[in-house]
Predict the structure.
Amino acid sequence: MKLTSYSNYALRSLQLAALKAPDLIRVDDVVQVHGVARPHIVKIVHELGRAGYLETQRGRGGGFRLARPAADIVVGDVVRLTEGPLDLVECFNPKVNTCPLIGICKLSRALQKAARAFMAVLDDLTLADIAANRGELLARITPLEEGIVAPMRKAR
């Protein structure tokens, strides 16, 4: 299973907000720490704000912060928001299915079971859980925020 970068950075934006709570976080803070394009983070923050995960403040000195306690934000819910249905294969979605094996395919059943298990793990995880090692996380991101070292990026 693979999540989109959109979901990844949505979770990382929320995680940073949890680490810095109750302070406001600027979009540029996320950009600096994770080395991702600013418009991408602006879109993510907007959607998370509309969904009630973030409280946003516009203008000079603006930013965002968690709109509710980190312990009340379930990672699985955020993934459902940012990913939509996890249609691993076309037969998961009857509107686009062209597979003649629908209803009798053991592979489809196994993939559905795997997707449910994947989401069950994420449903058992909160934002507070992924920010619990606060000291280690802050020690890693502080140099990035201060521009001391370049962000770690995936090799292409």
About this structure: Confidence is low (pLDDT under 50) at residues 150-156.
